[in-house]
Each structure stands twice: as structure tokens, then as C-alpha cells.
From TrEMBL:
This is beta-glucosidase. InterPro entries: GH, GH_1_N_CS, Glyco_hydro_1, Glyco_hydro_1_AS. SUPFAM superfamilies: (Trans)glycosidases (SSF51445). It is an enzyme of class 3 (hydrolase). The keyword DNA-binding does not apply. The active site is at 398 (nucleophile). PANTHER family: GLYCOSYL HYDROLASE, LP05116P. Residues 1-21 form the signal peptide. Keywords: Glycoprotein, Glycosidase, Hydrolase, Signal. It comes from Hypothenemus hampei. The keyword Endoplasmic reticulum does not apply.
Length: 494
């Protein structure tokens, strides 16, 4: 017997003898996710313009683990029919993917439309519709047109206007196919890794400033995109619009120490709260204003490093999330390190929070340095979001595990199983509204600064083969089974 068969037998015996399975609600949506830059390839094909990730990987290959880029990636631009055939085989309810802005507007602006790019997405929409697969569409997943990056990208408030023109065009062209829109993907990640470090495009390490300006422009751009949809398209298209927010769960290092509990809460407000608070409650979280304003003043800045919203902007942003698009991968332990009036010579959002992060040595690791398997963190995160923002409808739109290209990926299955069990508990025991789950990712792809070294796919892609051969992993069969049975064994995931 192969390892696969033995494991199947163990799962089967477990199922028969204990019979402890949990069932997902009938209307719970199962899907998978990808993004344009990570899978499409065809970076300079059929009229596409340069994105800031094209520019970044071509100019700073040393910042990518394996010095690779996504010029070809999975070549999904040319192989989308094969990729959709896997979606059909999995029988997912939905497919989350993104539209490449520079494939639609090569220079970022609407004075030049690349109709070949538009037609590519229409072909994908039509094929999905044929198989009854709901598209969940991200309008922006980090591939900013490079000419707009040259103008300052996400630190330039004028970007809001350019984004507005782009999203209006997408609603016009694709809106008839789409019920779930995502304006922007994970601004936290871009703003930290791209504007406060050199790790991600554009690699502008503007410590203590870039992080907040980037968040500010993202929030204004999202709100504008939301209002355009509501004012001009909702009546005929009846879709929902959200911004996709990612979070690590923050656990106090010492739960019986009040200062640790406060440090964890403060970190949640500086990360998820930076977006959730303006969207649901209005304006930045108070603790963020207090800390950054205070430190900026003590550091002698003429104005706070945290940009201020006008009262019109506060009202404009508040209430612009039809559902809560949540990404969750992992957790951290948090402890306080200093009073915010100390270490004034250092300007960084980390110093503004006054905390340090670590991990629990009992958490199982993945091959990716930041990703530990902490399933209960997802349940905690769902509950935190529900409590802070008055029980929004939550749609988990990314969750997944990294390994080094193994086909018998039982660590991934274990990770997914645990996270889905904790999602079910949030629904059944905590009575939270979680409407669906997107597994990241359908297939191996370009994992940003990790290049192709880390694989997240339930389908393996052989990047050295001529045809970029796709091979399903054990986790693919596991997920397909789950989608069909809608039941899961949660015995081992208390
Ligand atoms: C597209 O980029 C590739 C490198 O990835 C290059 O070899 C090719 O000449 C380019 N094609 C066009 C049309 O610029
Ligand atoms: C796919 O899922 C739908 C809806 O959940 C179900 O009705 C259908 O029978 C499934 N198809 C297959 C081939 O399993
Ligand atoms: C945790 O905090 C409590 C309260 O401050 C303290 O009594 C205890 O010693 C701390 N535990 C550890 C392991 O540091
Ligand atoms: C700030 O000052 C501390 C203490 O004098 C020193 O250890 C640290 O390296 C300084 N940091 C920077 C960024 O200058
Ligand atoms: C690649 O795919 C093409 C078209 O399906 C096929 O003709 C060719 O034999 C394949 N090449 C390899 C090396 O598998």
C-alpha cells in the first residue's frame, strides 16, 4: 500500500468508527484563489503595460529569493481553459482571481484601452459562467501600472482618481458577470513590505511615514470605488463591494499580564484596526492617533506622521464595506517593549506601537519563515472582527500553507483541516456569519519575494517544463472530497 492509501484508510476507519464529523451549512461557499501577477505571465504580451512588480523584479532581481520574476509564471493568460477545467473538476462554488490594471490600461489611464486584455477577462468570465462558477473579482492585487508608480504610487492621493477611472471601466465591462467585488487586496501587506521596507514592490523604505500615507490613500481609493459602484452600477448589477483585509491573530505572550493584553490589542488596532475602524466606526483608531501624534510631536515633526482625515473624508469612508473580506494565515505572540515616549530617535510604526512580536515554539512551522500553523487564531480573528465591527458578514478569501513542492502534502491537509474546523466552530458555537472560504491557492505560483521557492498550490506546477505541467496534490483530492461531502472530521482540532 502507498502512503496515500494508508492515510486514506486511517481517515476512513476514523470516520466509520467514531463518526465524529461536522457539516458545513448548505449555503456555505467553497472556492480557491489566485491573483493576476502571480499566475498570468504574458507580462508584455497582447498590449499589456508594465506593472510595478514587472519593474521591481526586472530591476532588483536580488530582492527575490531565487532572482526570478513572473514574466511567464503559470502562463495562465494562455492556459486559462486548462485552469478552469480544474475548477470545474473541484466543483467549487466560486473562483477568486484578479484583473491586471496594466493589462486593461497599459499606461494606467483611461485614454488608452487594451481591448485584447478586456477580451481575455470576458473569455474567462464566460467560461466560468458556463460551469456555474461564481467569479469573486479583485480589482487590484498589487500590480500597479508602472507609470503611476513613477508618480508616487500609493503615497500620492491623486492615485484615487486614476483608480476611480479604472474601476468604473471594469464595472462597465465586467459588471454583468460579477456579484462579489474586491477593490484592493491586503493593503496592510503592501504598505508594510512595499512602503516601509525594500522587500516588496515598489521597495520604498519610507520608515514611519510610508506605512500611514499608503493606508490613507488605499482607504480613500477604496471608498471612491465603493461609491462609484453604489451610485452608478448597483441598481442594475446588484453586486457587493469589499476591501480585502489580512491579519495575523495577536496573542498576548503572558495572558495574565495586563500590559501584554493591552499590547496585543494595540497591535490589532495598528494592523486590522487601521482599516477596519475607518470603514466601520469612522476615522483611525484612537490609540493610533494618540501614539503617532504624540511621538511625531516629541520627535519635532511640524505635522503628525499620521495623515488626518477631514470630517467629509471620515463620512465618505465609513460604511463602505458590504461584506468583510478576511485573509488569515498565521498568528503571533505580542509583548510590550517600551513606552512610546522612549526611543525617539527611531521612526517606525513598530516603535509607534511599542511592542515586539514572537511565536510560540509549540506552533508547527511551514517551510515559509513567517507561516506557523495556528488554526484557533482564525477563530479568534473572526470573533475579534465580529465584536469590533458589529457582526459583519465575513467571507474568508485567503487561507493556505507553504511547502517545498511535495505532492503528498499532508502538512497542508492538516493545516486546512484545522482552519476549516475552527471556521465551523465560529459559525456553530460563536454564531458568527461566515459565508465562505477561499483556499490559497489553486496552483503554485510566483510567491512575491519568495519567488517560486515556496509552493502554496493544491495543484503543483512544474515551472521547468515546456508546458508548465499541472499535477494535482493529495490536498486537491482532499478538498474536492470536502466540497462534495460538505463534512469534515474535526476530532483532532480542538
Ligand atoms: C517580452 O519579454 C521577453 C522577456 O520576458 C522578451 O524576450 C521579449 O522580447 C518581449 N517581447 C516583446 C514583444 O517585447
Ligand atoms: C457540484 O455542486 C453542486 C452544488 O453544490 C451540486 O448540486 C452538484 O451535484 C455538484 N456536481 C458534482 C459533479 O458533484
Ligand atoms: C505573567 O504575568 C503575571 C502578572 O504580571 C506574573 O505574575 C507572572 O509571573 C507572569 N508569568 C511569566 C511566565 O512571566
Ligand atoms: C537610537 O538610540 C539608541 C540608544 O542610544 C541606539 O541604541 C540606537 O541604535 C539608535 N537608533 C537609531 C536608528 O539611531
Ligand atoms: C506541450 O503541449 C503541446 C500542445 O498540447 C503538445 O503538442 C506538446 O507535445 C507538449 N510538449 C510536451 C513536452 O509535453
Amino acid at each position: 500500500m502507498s502512503i496515500k492509501q494508508i492515510l486514506f484508510l486511517i481517515v476512513f476507519i476514523n470516520f466509520v468508527s467514531f463518526g465524529r464529523t461536522d457539516k458545513f451549512p448548505d449555503n456555505f461557499l467553497f472556492g480557491v484563489a489566485t491573483s493576476a501577477y502571480q499566475i498570468e505571465g504574458a507580462w508584455n504580451q497582447s498590449g499589456k503595460g508594465e506593472s510595478m512588480w514587472d519593474w521591481f523584479t526586472h530591476n532588483f532581481p536580488e530582492r527575490i529569493q531565487d532572482t526570478s520574476n513572473a514574466d511567464i509564471a503559470c502562463d495562465s493568460y494562455n492556459r486559462y481553459e486548462e485552469d478552469v477545467s480544474f475548477l470545474k473538476d473541484l466543483n467549487v462554488s466560486f473562483y477568486r482571481f484578479s484583473i491586471s490594471w496594466p493589462r486593461i490600461f497599459p499606461n494606467g489611464q483611461n485614454n488608452r484601452v487594451n481591448w485584447e486584455g478586456v477580451n481575455y477577462y470576458i473569455a474567462v468570465f464566460k467560461l466560468l459562467k458556463e460551469f456555474n462558477i461564481e467569479p469573486v473579482v479583485t480589482l487590484y492585487h498589487w500590480d500597479l501600472p508602472q507609470p503611476l508608480n513613477n508618480l508616487g504610487g500609493w503615497t500620492n492621493p491623486l492615485l484615487v482618481d486614476y483608480f476611480a477611472n479604472y474601476v468604473r471601466f471594469c464595472y462597465e465591462q465586467f459588471g454583468q458577470y460579477v456579484k462579489y467585488w474586491i477593490t484592493l487586496n491586503e493593503p496592510q501587506t503592501t504598505c508594510i513590505n512595499g512602503y516601509s521596507s525594500t522587500e516588496f514592490a515598489p521597495g520604498y523604505n519610507i520608515k514611519g511615514l510610508g506605512f500611514y500615507y499608503c493606508a490613507y490613500v488605499h482607504l480613500l481609493a477604496h471608498a471612491r470605488a465603493y461609491h462609484i459602484y453604489k451610485d452608478e452600477f448597483y441598481e442594475t448589477q446588484q453586486g457587493k463591494v469589499s476591501i480585502d483585509l489580512t491579519m495575523r491573530w495577536m496573542e498576548p505572550l503572558n495572558k495574565s499580564d495586563e500590559s501584554h493584553v493591552l499590547a496585543a490589542e494595540r497591535t490589532l488596532q495598528f494592523t486590522m484596526g487601521l482599516y477596519g475602524h475607518p470603514l466601520y466606526l469612522g476615522d483611525w483608531p484612537q490609540i493610533v492617533k494618540d501614539n503617532v501624534d504624540k511621538r511625531s510631536e516629541l520627535q519635532g515633526y511640524a505635522r503628525s506622521r499620521l495623515p488626518k482625515f477631514t470630517s467629509e473624508q471620515i463620512d465618505f469612508i465609513k460604511g463602505t464595506n458590504d461584506y468583510f473580506a478576511l485573509n488569515y494565515y498565521t498568528s503571533n505572540l505580542v509583548y510590550p517593549t517600551h513606552d512610546i515616549t522612549e526611543d525617539l530617535n527611531e521612526t517606525s510604526y513598530g516603535k509607534d506601537m511599542g511592542v515586539s512580536l514572537s511565536i510560540d515554539s509549540s506552533w508547527p512551522s511551514s517551510t515559509s519563515s513567517w507561516l506557523y500553523n495556528v488554526p484557533y487564531g482564525l477563530r479568534s480573528m473572526i470573533n475579534w472582527v465580529a465584536e469590533q465591527y458589529d457582526n459583519p458578514e465575513i467571507f474568508i478569501l485567503e487561507n493556505g500553507f507553504a511547502d517545498l513542492h511535495t505532492l503528498d502534502d499532508y502538512d497542508r491537509i492538516n493545516y486546512l483541516n484545522g482552519h476549516l474546523c475552527h471556521t465551523l466552530r465560529a459559525i456553530n458555537e460563536d454564531k458568527r456569519t461566515v459565508i465562505g472560504y477561499a483556499l490559497w491557492s489553486l496552483m503554485d505560483n510566483f510567491e512575491w519575494s519568495d519567488g517560486y521557492e515556496q509552493s502554496f498550490g493544491i495543484i503543483a506546477v512544474d515551472f521547468s517544463s515546456v508546458n508548465l505541467t499541472r499535477t494535482v496534490r493529495a490536498s486537491y483530492e482532499w478538498y474536492k472530497n470536502l466540497i462534495e461531502s460538505r463534512t469534515i472530521d474535526c476530532e483532532d482540532f480542538e
